[in-house]
Amino acid sequence: MDNRSTSYITVAAVTIAAGLAAYAVYFDYRRRNDVEFRKKLKKEKKRVEKAVAQNKQSELAESSSEINEQALHDVLKGIRSEAGPQTSEEKEGYFMSQINIGEQLSIQGPRMYLPAAAAFFRALRVYPSPVELIGIYEKTIIEPVFKLVMQLTQLDVKFRIEAYYDNFPPKRTNVSVVSREVTPGQGNRQILVVNKNFNAGEVIYKEFPVVTALDPDLQEKGTHCGHCLRPIQPGMSLQTPKDSSTGPFHLTYCSKACMLASKNQYHSLLFTLDSPLPSEIPSMPPSPEVQQHRSEAQAKFADFVKKEGRLSLLLVARFIARQVAGETQKLVSATSPGMAAAAAANGDFTDADHPIEKYVLADHLERLRYLEVVPNAAETKLLSDVLSSALPGLEEFITEEKYATSCGKMAYNAFGVCFGGGRDDRPEPTARPEDVEKTRTPYGTQRQIGSALYTVSSYLTHSCKPSARPSFSSGTAEISIIANRDLKKGDVLTIAFVDVTQHPDETVVECRRRRRFELARGWRFSCACERCVEEAQMLSAEDKEKGNAADEQLKDESKIEASVKNFSNPEQAAQDRAEDVIDSFIG
């Protein structure tokens, strides 16, 4: 470029700059002194801001429209198939790397929002307190990415809901849960069917209980294990020391293994002053005042349990304590893989057969049927005090409504553990017949030595002509379900909830009336099994007159939780659960 061209450009630039400066002075003068000009400027500013906002919304809408449900499904499927970190150190590094990836991708524009959300979702899956992290996400992540994270969470919940009965019961039990009508006209319910053929007398599956409770008289005598319910030979027992420092509720055990299992699962939390947290989690030692308050709360609860003598109360307390123990153990399971292996070997089916999908006790209990019971505010408060004095916040497990529902589930699903044909020396109940606790046993509750809850066996339904029977031939609370007759693949598994044998001093109508009364009192339904229908047709007019009360068709009063009803609409159930997670943090 020659000197003359350079001069021309320089002069032009100076001229333009001078013109711009002059216009800026003129513009500022009019802005400060011309009212109409100011109004025009404000109007133009609003127009520009509106155009920018619309453009941004259009850009977001365009980017969101490209992210359809199939794209979210594909991302979630990929994430769920990833091996993921195993140790706590690996999880910490993985968490930080995914957070960093999400932050970097989210600032690269709408087309990177889904990969960013996927990274944040991966971090959420390994974070020990997902509710807390969701609250942090809501405050720190840009809205479109946060919405995608929640959509992935909702799809994840939906998958868990739909996949539950694909993974539970475990395949090794040889049974599946299906939905069929049991009582004509009363809708479908979940029941057990066999997955293969069985001959009469064959064991279909075995199952250990989730929780047990020994009859009070046997606990006092120390003749049976307080955990597995095994009879104990004289001089072969292990006992918790009977002094105030070890708790107010003393148990006898058949072995050190049972003593440790009881301690780790529920006894330490409910009836000792031991830390409610695993030893791997550091915590400050409680003050003497806190320990005194905890001791007093436990003593009051123990006295109430002994006075009432109701096993459902103890079953609920132990179940809740085991839930707490399971949740706290999650925090250290990565550093103690042996504990996870031991839990899996228990055979109580508290998880599911799936390499990735995991279920917890709450998932199993939530799906069980229950009877409505009147909440007892006194016992709810006593148990709540035990939990809160051990670790503030645990009382959230035990609202009156939750407690009443849990009691109703124990009342409907608990089995009576009987060895051989049962015992003859159980103390006679003093409560009214309609208030006496009933458990599922073909020998009658009065012959049991204790009660137990099982995750798989709770789906067994009653029949007065059952296709299978429970057995406790191992000498513990481990239940074996044995075929009463030859069974074909797909046949329904039924057992007798009550003693259905016709006693020597009973007529057909008397036997029928007795067992139907017991079913109505204990489980609030009228049996419509093949035997009951056949016997009804055989009854004479006089017999029908005598047994008319037993022939009244009582509607099945057992219920399922509202949340489980929503499982028939997985999209709505998943949305409700995702919203509950956010609400629980914000509220």
Automatic annotation (TrEMBL):
<dbReference type="InterPro" id="IPR002056">
    <property type="entry name" value="MAS20"/>
</dbReference>
<keyword id="KW-1000">Mitochondrion outer membrane</keyword>
<dbReference type="GO" id="GO:0006886">
    <property type="term" value="P:intracellular protein transport"/>
</dbReference>
<dbReference type="GO" id="GO:0005742">
    <property type="term" value="C:mitochondrial outer membrane translocase complex"/>
</dbReference>
<keyword id="KW-0812">Transmembrane</keyword>
<feature type="domain" description="SET">
    <location>
        <begin position="192"/>
        <end position="496"/>
    </location>
</feature>
<dbReference type="Pfam" id="PF00856">
    <property type="entry name" value="SET"/>
</dbReference>
<keyword id="KW-0496">Mitochondrion</keyword>
<keyword id="KW-0653">Protein transport</keyword>
<dbReference type="GO" id="GO:0008320">
    <property type="term" value="F:protein transmembrane transporter activity"/>
</dbReference>
<feature type="compositionally biased region" description="Basic and acidic residues">
    <location>
        <begin position="424"/>
        <end position="440"/>
    </location>
</feature>
<feature type="transmembrane region" description="Helical">
    <location>
        <begin position="6"/>
        <end position="29"/>
    </location>
</feature>
<dbReference type="InterPro" id="IPR001214">
    <property type="entry name" value="SET_dom"/>
</dbReference>
<feature type="region of interest" description="Disordered">
    <location>
        <begin position="424"/>
        <end position="443"/>
    </location>
</feature>
<dbReference type="GO" id="GO:0016031">
    <property type="term" value="P:tRNA import into mitochondrion"/>
</dbReference>
<protein>
    <recommendedName>
        <fullName>SET domain-containing protein</fullName>
    </recommendedName>
</protein>
<dbReference type="GO" id="GO:0006605">
    <property type="term" value="P:protein targeting"/>
</dbReference>
<feature type="region of interest" description="Disordered">
    <location>
        <begin position="564"/>
        <end position="587"/>
    </location>
</feature>
<keyword id="KW-0813">Transport</keyword>
<keyword id="KW-1133">Transmembrane helix</keyword>
<dbReference type="GO" id="GO:0030150">
    <property type="term" value="P:protein import into mitochondrial matrix"/>
</dbReference>
<comment type="similarity">
    <text>Belongs to the Tom20 family.</text>
</comment>
<dbReference type="GO" id="GO:0030943">
    <property type="term" value="F:mitochondrion targeting sequence binding"/>
</dbReference>
<dbReference type="InterPro" id="IPR023392">
    <property type="entry name" value="Tom20_dom_sf"/>
</dbReference>
<keyword id="KW-0472">Membrane</keyword>
<dbReference type="Pfam" id="PF02064">
    <property type="entry name" value="MAS20"/>
</dbReference>
<dbReference type="InterPro" id="IPR046341">
    <property type="entry name" value="SET_dom_sf"/>
</dbReference>
